[in-house]
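Before surveying the methods themselves, let us examine one representative protein, written as a sequence plus integers encoding its fold.
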Amino acid sequence: MKGQRKSRLTVRIYYEDTDCGGVVYYANYLRYFERARTEYLRACGIELKPWMEKGLYFVVARVEIDYKAPAHYSDLLEIETAVTGRSKASITFSHSVRDQNGRLNADSMVILVCVSGGRPRRIPDEIIAKL
């Protein structure tokens, strides 16, 4: 999206994040992306908890991750997050992960769908206006 807003989240890699080879376990990137999206929305002025209390949720419908280079114990990763697409009921996020040397570790695309009562629904205008 033209003129898209971006946010950055820094994550330190701890021993618990790594596999037996000392490399970040692949599924942990999903946790990092979740944190990054939450902070992105917070920076936009969108807190999800009040919406959840009203029965409105954003659920992951699709994830694509391209792993480019391994990250290791004690690395400092920077996750850049942006909204790259939107429909009436979904938001597409992109995430890029780079280590402290600027090396690209992973790229990802995540689609969240707005749901209520277990069914897709239109994203409230109040949320769209802040994105």
Summary: The domain at 6-130 is CATH 3.10.129.10 (Thiol Ester Dehydrase; Chain A). The chain has one domain: 6-130. The first helix runs from residue 28 to 43.
